[in-house]
Amino acid sequence: MAKIHLAHLNTLPPKKTQKKKILAETEKIIEGLDELQNLLYAQSKHAVLVVIQGMDAAGKDGVIRHVFGKLNPQGVQVTSFKEPAALELSHDFLWRIHQHTPAKGMIHIFNRSHYEDVLVTRVHKMINNKLAYKRMDAINAFEDLLVEHNNTHILKFYLHISHGEQLKRLDERIKDPKKQWKYNEKDFEESKLWPEYMEVYEDCLNHCNKIPWTVTPSDAHWYKEYIIAHTLYQLLKNLKMQYPGLKK
Fold first, then answer.
1. Count of structural domains, the chain
2. pLDDT tens digits for 16-33?
3. 4 domain residue, yes or no
4. Which residues pair with 159 in a beta bridge?
5. CA distance 27 to 22
6. Residue percentage of the chain with pLDDT more than 90
């Protein structure tokens, strides 16, 4: 598998991409996702885990709202992983993750995920490289477990935003009254560590790529949402699900 070099990958949509056409296509895809989700829930043979990772202001919340917001809430669950609490820190780093993995018939979305424990912790020197690689090996084994023993299909998206676009969006959180509730002074401090984050992200994307990542250009919200919706649609469509018949 080709090695991922984030600096070589565009954060913008391809030049000839037509925004109006893509927006219409996304709406059509989301309508199709509604039916496919019902099939997934009714058949209850497959589980779907959607991992969304990215820097602050990459648009994680927005993509969850716009792509998944119209689906039946009985079959979709979102978990946001913040800084671990004391109880979580008293267990292994995957303990808090495993209890939120999807049951058959469900789509679960991780807004940030188990990967935080090899990203933030590494940038801030909470763990050394040796422990980081051990954790990444454990993550690979954990994802294999979900796939092989619960028929879980895992989609992993890295929202690839440019540093300039991130700073612009963080600045909007100060100036736009509708976004001020998102403002966190810490986000600007983290942004200063951009090179360090890019280094550990790239290492993580390459070391934990047995289940491949979709590096998603995210400077344009509408294109990012299209990529995620389309990828999920193709996965569910390829499962060739059918509604169960009457029980005998």
1. 1
2. 999 999 999 999 999 999
3. no
4. 54, 216
5. 9
6. 94
